[in-house]
Amino acid sequence: xxxxxxxxxxxAVIATSAAAILALDMTNERRFQRQVKEHFRxxxxxxxxxxxxxxxxxxxxxxxxxxxxxxxxxxxxxxxxGGATGAGVALDAQTRGLKxxxxxxxxxxxxxxxxxxxxxxxxxxxxxxxxxKADVEQYRMVKEALFERHNLLEIAxxxxxxxxxxxxxxxxxxxxxxxxxxxxxxxxxxxxVLKNSFFISKQQALERFPMLKNESLKGxxxxxxxxxxxxxxxxxxxxxxxxxxxxxxxxxxxxxxxKDETGKVTGAHVKDMVTGEEWDIKxxxxxxxxxxFTDSIRLMGDPxxxxxxxxPSSGVHITLPGYYSPSNTGLLDPDTSDGRVIFFLPWERMTxxxxxxxxxxxxxxxxxxxHDIEFxxxxxxxxxxxxxxxxxxDVMSAWSGLRPLVRDPNKKDTKSLARxxxxxxxxxxxxxxxGGKWTTxxxxxxxxxxxxxxxxxxxxxxxxxxxxxxxxxxxxxNALQYIHLVQDYGMEVDVAQxxxxxxxxxxxxxxxxxxxxxxxxxxxGQRLHPEFPYLDxxxxxxxxxxxxxxxxxxxxxxxxxxxxxxxxxxxxxxxxRVMGEELGWSSAEQRAQLEKARTFIDMExxxxxxxxxxxxxxxxxxxxxxxxxxxRFHQLDKDRKGHITVNDLRKHFREHNQKIxxxxxxxxxxxxxxxxxxxxxxxxFFQLYSGLKGGQLTSNRLVxxxxxxxxxPSVNRACGGI
Length: 722
Prior knowledge:
Elements: E1 3-8, E2 11-16, H1 18-22, H2 26-51, H3 62-70, E3 75-80, H4 84-95, E4 100-103, E5 119-120, H5 124-132, H6 136-155, E6 160-169, H7 174-189, E7 198-200, H8 202-208, E8 219-228, H9 230-243, E9 247-249, E10 252-259, E11 265-272, E12 278-288, H10 294-301, E13 310-320, E14 330-333, E15 342-347, E16 350-354, E17 358-359, H11 370-381, E18 397-406, E19 421-425, E20 431-435, H12 441-456, H13 481-489, H14 493-503, H15 507-513, H16 536-544, H17 550-557, H18 560-563, H19 565-583, H20 587-604, H21 607-616, H22 623-636, E21 643-644, H23 646-655, H24 662-672, E22 680-681, H25 682-694, H26 701-710, H27 715-718
């Protein structure tokens, strides 16, 4: 090898002969490539180790972040959308050394990212489609998702965990068919397989899942996927990005995109939805990560050339009581009556089931329909024992999420659309990331930032470092952390487990915010609701996590709205009171927050769908039962007006020395007032009693109060028991 010395300005430069480099054989080239990769792995490991140091300081306030966004300084990247994808892009960009900003119209994870099936998975049905159709693209997507599943379980172990899922088999020929498919899933997972799948006998299946239908059951397959708290995971990604220096703000709407004289996007004009203030954010690159709303932002960037690329699909899930499933095993129905797949999973000590899959219009407030809820219930009935009465009234919550599927003009039904993502660069320079699925958010973010760096010529400190980058709460967490909360703070075990699994190593910060209970046990930790482990201190902490509305708290910082709409309604006054103290809300603002949150629960969490089910249900009362209901009605309607008003309720409770809050009086009326005319008619009263008997409802507060006052048997028992 020859050396050539160059001298320029007194500085010696030694260069390697180009001829010698070109003469390297393929063996040396491969060795060189391995050395380069090893070098970058070393650099990556050093940077990752630095980034993975736990930040001891408090998060900046929302006010601090908004001040940063209003400075007028140019950001390298501005991301629109605070769901899983947008959050992932923000974290990736910031940790590469790019000056990053993010704005979200509503709350972080307020859309699709909080309304998923709560699984971190590669997609068993996508692998089936890949094998059956020899679809290389779908195969790669599954393999990519399985890597991301492993990574997510590593970087946020407090928010995620492996979950065994049972596939019951009722026909002998299905045993080898499904076994080969599940084993292929294990094989594609490679060394990152969570646990190997296995077959169990009928007896073992019933021991593991006692409520399973046993007629014709041949056995079951058990395979493993990941499960997580989706909204909290989304928030953890955002908080991690903020810890590393990103300026991420929720409740900030993009009014329009800013452009230079050549039509290139240079930022956005935004509005704070809390204060109404407006300003401009300058950025070298703007990324559109708005999920189902992708096309609306694309039209802002390229109104003349943008064509729709998103085909939104509505997926409905329901929440049932925890006794519907074992606490540690899920269920997969691989072949529903219309060819879809339904999961039946334990989650947050409840049971969730879903999902449907139907084309949908884009809306900020997707609502579950009674038809979708009944479809899920009917499918569940087909798999559960006849001894388990699957009742409409057991649906504690229901929600609809809009999946941002990528449109394929050659396919009409959304069931066959994979969650593949695309990255588009518009003529204006706007970069759009669309499609994909929750599990692959990190990979999507990596490819998006790669594209942005390439197209806009941005300078980074390093390449992507997000594989292995710990998320908020993961740094010092371990599975036994909750014991320290019990022993050191005097908390109840379920509360300590909840705090540990929600906040990770930040749970101790929440614990220190708790007030003394004044009881022998627990010493600290005032519950918001007796049936759930949520504490009033969490509401105060939620404000530090950028919660701006009551809905932000009950739906995403806590998950109560997704778990039980009745409980969510009951805790709202306390949530609003605490938030009012933290944020300085006036009485008028507190009333407005209450009203907005109640509307959210009724419209988007399935409460209205439940009332519709009751009103549409046929009367199934005997003549004697109708007479008893009529007598109870007349106890309230003493003037024989034919309807009951809130004044009638108020008067009745006063006569019996019962103190009922005015707000509760209106809620009692509203729960029975199906046609929403401010009165309860006799027909609505009959529907109430019929719903209690038929299982469309499991309980009703008004009936419960009346039973307590008059000392009569519960209407449930009086109507035959349900």
